[in-house]
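Worked problem 6 (solution included).
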Amino acid sequence: MTTQVTKGIKVSVQTSFEGTFFKNYKMHYAFGYTISIENQSKDVVQLTTRHWDVFDSLKEMEAIDGEGVIGKKPVIRPGKSHTYSSGCLLASPIGAMKGYYHIMNLTTSQIIEVPVPTFKFAAAFAMN
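Solution. The predicted structure is:
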């Protein structure tokens, strides 16, 4: 598990290899990840946007920006957390992601950038 705390927001990531499949005559590698965002601050916060850099050992880096996570902009009270699962498809069995969330402090209206540390994807058969 990968974990990082920034300004009272703890982000933890767990990854998994989900399998392979062919699409358009090409092999694809499916990876899943579960992210938990825990509010360790004293203020109520809301996740508003996300940014991802997706690294695939056989392709160029891909940047992805969007609102919320999996269609939600969760409000997280002090001492509470929001957990969600998602995934990505890679052209190779090895890759990684990193990024950040924009999180608004609902008490001060300040937006902070909370980094999501680099988390790696690797199919067991691809490792030495």
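Discussion: Residues 2-126 form a domain with the Immunoglobulin-like fold (CATH 2.60.40.1470).
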